[in-house]
């Protein structure tokens, strides 16, 4: 039995919550995964996983064994990278997750830069607005916007995204164009709410270096960035979004920026990864590339991002 391979299979089962998912992600026959776990448990003399018809759970011994496996595998990966060509040309699967708009409009269009530099890294990119559980879902790195971060993860600040306040031309014809925060009386907002926590977000403005929260009446509330934008284009009220997400709509006249003199606060964008991935060469080069990408003074990034340092 290859003990390191058995540990790798065990950790993947824990992270993905099942033998079949682990086998698929490791591109192994499902029977081989089952055999390896049985051999590992026999070698250790303990049961690591509690199997039922519906789910897989860790035993007490398995819960104690899992973090040790994670550390050993991370140390092994880094040691091999130091003494092999992988140090300069890392290889293997890298699972990342990011908001759909960031991925579609910023990261994926620039991705050929990264894959040309690191051709042996295979990327699996999840695009969605919901927070993912990195450990449970087996994700190596995530990009998240906003100040609410997970203290259990390693955080690498990337950029401060510029945000703008927008409305559709039809909405402004009906309700007028506000020239100050005081003019917002009688206006509507499209409300954004979290599908996970249920938290609701109104409008915020930086007035005299202080953040002022404004809650306006609403007809529509949505829980996705694309839906939030679509509701604004349909004329349901004011929204506040990162500039990159509405740049094309503003250029085409489908949306209009308002209250530019009192902008919304910036939105921090951060890369996060579990502590046990801190030594991973694949994670490190990807996050370093993201920092470079966000700092590029190209036309594609005019008003989209401003370096956070």
TrEMBL record:
It comes from the Bacteria. GO terms for molecular function: DNA-binding transcription factor activity; sequence-specific DNA binding. Residues 1-59 form the HTH lysR-type domain. GO terms for biological process: DNA-templated transcription. Keywords: DNA-binding, Transcription, Transcription regulation. PROSITE patterns: HTH_LYSR. SUPFAM superfamilies: Periplasmic binding protein-like II, Winged helix' DNA-binding domain. The keyword Transcription regulation applies. InterPro entries: LysR-type_TF_proteobact-type, LysR_HTH_N, LysR_subst-bd, WH-like_DNA-bd_sf, WH_DNA-bd_sf. The keyword DNA-binding applies. Belongs to the LysR transcriptional regulatory family. This is LysR family transcriptional regulator.
């Amino acid at each position: 039995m290859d003990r390191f391979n058995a540990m790798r299979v065990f950790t993947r089962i824990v992270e993905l919550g099942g033998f079949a998912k682990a086998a698929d992600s490791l591109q192994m026959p499902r029977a081989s995964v089952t055999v390896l776990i049985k051999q590992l448990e026999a070698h250790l003399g303990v049961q690591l996983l509690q199997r039922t018809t519906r789910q897989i759970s860790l035993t007490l011994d398995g819960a104690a064994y899992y973090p040790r496996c994670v550390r050993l595998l991370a140390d092994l990966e880094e040691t091999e990278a130091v003494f092999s060509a992988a140090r300069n040309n890392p290889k293997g699967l890298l699972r990342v997750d990011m908001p759909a708009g960031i991925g579609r409009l910023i990261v994926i269009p620039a991705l050929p830069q990264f894959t040309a530099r690191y051709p042996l890294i295979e990327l699996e990119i999840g695009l969605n607005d919901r927070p993912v559980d990195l450990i449970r879902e087996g994700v190596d790195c995530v990009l998240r916007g906003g100040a609410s971060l997970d203290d259990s993860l390693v955080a690498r600040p990337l950029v401060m995204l510029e945000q703008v306040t927008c409305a559709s031309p039809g909405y402004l014809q009906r309700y007028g164009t506000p020239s100050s925060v005081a003019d917002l009386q009688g206006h509507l907002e499209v409300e954004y709410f979290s599908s996970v926590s249920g938290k609701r977000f109104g409008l915020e403005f930086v007035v005299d270096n202080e953040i002022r929260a404004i809650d306006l009446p609403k007809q529509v509330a949505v829980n996705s960035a694309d839906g939030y934008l679509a509701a604004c284009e349909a004329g349901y009220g004011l929204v506040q979004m990162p500039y990159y997400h509405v740049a094309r709509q503003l250029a085409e006249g489908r949306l209009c920026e308002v209250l530019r003199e009192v902008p919304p606060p910036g939105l921090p964008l951060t890369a996060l990864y579990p502590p046990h991935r801190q030594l991973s060469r694949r994670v490190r080069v990807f996050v370093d590339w993201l920092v470079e990408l966000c700092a590029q003074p190209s036309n594609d990034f005019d008003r989209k991002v401003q370096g956070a340092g």
